[in-house]
């Protein structure tokens, strides 16, 4: 369970040990959605009047397009998160981007939007399907991991000829 009654949190801390599913409605179009449920573990407790603190870990896997060949590349995401939640109108809440503002009409604290944000901040910007990925041919687009393409070798840009001569010791 990733949603908690705020009134019970003021009395005692709770242990969080659950998962956030890839088909949960918290995910938006364009998000790097996990390939399997994200493991969420931690502790949620009161941190003063109208404030709550969650410390825990999120961990899961995501499939991204390979940076070189555009095939599937798996990446593992793990984060040790420290999140602060506060009721709307609390002092210093509106200007602090690190504080998640609670909906004053809801009697529950829902961790899912904050977990989503932490997940997206920790998903790598790019991934490789393997370290020795050869990528795509820049001329015909053939995936070079599957074999060489039939393109004729392209001549180098003549503007670089002087530099090539220097490199080869002919200059």
Report on the structure:
- With 171 residues, the protein is α+β, with helices and mostly antiparallel strands.
- Helix content is 14%, strand content 33%.
- It has three helices and seven strands, in the order βαββββββαα.
- The strands form two sheets. Strands 2-3-4-5-6 form a five-stranded mixed β-sheet. The chain has a two-stranded antiparallel sheet with strand order 1-7.
Can you give keywords for this protein?
171 residues; alpha+beta; 5-stranded mixed sheet; two-stranded antiparallel sheet; 3 helices; 14% helix; 33% strand; elongated
Provide a short characterization of the protein structure.
The protein has 171 residues and is an alpha+beta fold. The protein has helices at 6-11, 112-122, 161-167; strands at 3-5, 14-20, 38-46, 51-65, 72-87, 99-102, 108-110. The chain has two domains: 3-122, no CATH class; 134-171, no CATH class.
SSE map:
Elements: E1 3-5, H1 6-11, E2 14-20, E3 38-46, E4 51-65, E5 72-87, E6 99-102, E7 108-110, H2 112-122, H3 161-167
């Amino acid at each position: 369970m990733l949603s908690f009654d705020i009134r019970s949190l003021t009395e005692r801390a709770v242990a969080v040990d659950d998962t956030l599913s890839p088909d949960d409605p918290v995910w938006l179009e364009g998000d790097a959605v996990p390939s399997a449920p994200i493991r969420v573990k931690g502790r949620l407790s009161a941190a003063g009047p109208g404030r709550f603190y969650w410390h825990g870990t999120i961990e899961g896997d995501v499939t991204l397009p390979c940076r070189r060949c555009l095939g599937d590349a798996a990446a593992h995401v793990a984060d040790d998160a420290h999140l602060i939640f506060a009721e709307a109108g609390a002092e210093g809440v509106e200007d602090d981007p690190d504080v998640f503002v609670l909906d004053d009409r809801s009697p529950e604290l829902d961790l899912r939007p904050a977990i989503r944000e932490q997940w997206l901040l920790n998903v790598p910007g790019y991934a490789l399907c393997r370290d020795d990925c050869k990528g795509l041919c820049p001329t015909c687009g053939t995936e070079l991991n599957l074999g060489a393409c039939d393109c004729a070798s392209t001549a180098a840009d003549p503007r670089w000829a002087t530099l090539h001569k220097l490199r080869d010791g002919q200059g």
